[in-house]
Amino acid sequence: MNILNILCIIINFAGALAIFLFGMKLMSEGLQKVAGNKMRSTLGKVTESKWRGILTGAIVTTAIQSSSATTVMVVSFVNAGLLSLTGAISVIMGANIGTTITAWIITLFGLGESAKVFSLPLFLGALALVFIFSQKSKFKALGEFIIGLTLLLLGMGLLQQAMPNLEEYPKFLEFLGSLSDHGFASILLFITIGTILTCLVQASAAMMAITLVMCYKGWIGFDVAVALVMGQNIGTTITANLAAMVANTNGKKAARAHLTFNVIGVIITLIVFRPVMNLIADITTGVVGSNPYTAVGAAGYSPEAIPLALAFFHTFFNVINTLILMWFIPQIVKIVNWMVKAFKEDADEDEIFKLKYISNHWMNTSELDLEAAQKEIEDFSKRVIRMYNFLPALRTAKNEDEFEKTLKHIEKYEVITDRMELEIAKYLTHVSEGNLSEEGSQKVGAMLRIIDNLESIGDAIYQMALIRKNKREDAVHFSQDLNDNLNHISQLVEKALSVMDQNLHGDYSKADIEAAYQAEDDINEYRDLLRTRHLQSLKAGIYDYAIGSTYSGLYALYEKLADYVINISEAAAGTKRK
What we know:
The chain has 24 helices and no strands. The protein has about 575 residues and is mostly helical.
């Protein structure tokens, strides 16, 4: 084998793997579009029921074809306090079951002649759906899903072709054989190899595809293939643990729970390794009439036997381990509590810039990413309202230290609002580059408008704080009547902010836009009244220009802030007042 041959094998193999992974991506995005809002919010509604959590994890992972993506979202929800650690562990267990569907798709349709038989009809049918129903997003998304499945099958076929015939390379075959001839030590070795390779690739589905093709080609035996699969189950946890590096203590615990569950599952399987292997072999023999331990070329050998047995094992491994370990979730919680020690945060958590739901380790799950973005926007709204609630303390501050302390709180929040807008916008831009549904694209546009106006609210609040600071430094004093007027418009704006916050929770299409418009009308009417009285007071000489300028500047900023508030509700509802 010369360098040119090796280079050609690597290029063909990489190209086939790229087509396979792209097919999986299209499948995932197509299913997400079909599912719509329901699947985006499924993970956030998990209760403490073990069975509900397991079912949720299995369904979501089956849809998006990535246990890593599901687990990363679980880490985000735990990090934000939306999901308990106990609930998260049950979802992770379900995710491990959901990911087994990949092996079955490949085994049943992607190996042998099946891929050729199914690929062309599937592809033509999918094209028909995409073009005929181009205006109907659900049918179009279904077509994209089928195209993804077709590309997955095509990628599997190309992977098989890219694998060289090892009979032409006896030395390499001898090397593989030497690694496999050390009994239980070989099993541990290939578990390690499977773990390392999956950590590097960060796609257990891709490693499963490679393992199945190696089995089909006769490169590796059943025991070695099973060891690689167990290693893949450990290696796939690296994604969530990387995402948890920037999470809080609970987020880290959720990621460690994924690792702990998979490692314990491997240990349990190793303890009963030979009986389990014999059981899988008997089941496979009963289905295809060939034992997966039959040597290549020997009587009764079938190339389908090992891939089928491997799919049986993958499902058996995850289902049985879940059924066993689901009763020991409290013990797993104790283990991860020991692994991740809680740390004390001295500062007010709300005054530390930290995205709670959006992970730096983006998973490209398109539609599902919007759920994390919406939760982050809800937190953005909460921070802005808390920033607004500091304003009254500037007026009632008893001394300079109390005033400066409150002002510093507002300054911190102003910096945070700037950074939150930047980071969420960057994330939404990344999401929009994916294959979103029409509904998803519209929601991204609405969210970008929302965060822009939330940041503007933060700027308006900061400007009010600076006016209060200048008023204090210049010894400008308001009468009780002026203070009462500002207090009243402040309360009207507070009500508008509350309506805005409610409209940002849940389904945007159900936003109460009428309540938002009523709140805005109340503010505009009162602002007009204040403006009329202000002009009359200036003419009558009731107060001087310095007081009048400061006073009018404040009530004008309240009204301006209210404009940003109504913009947010309009963006959520998808409406614009004429």
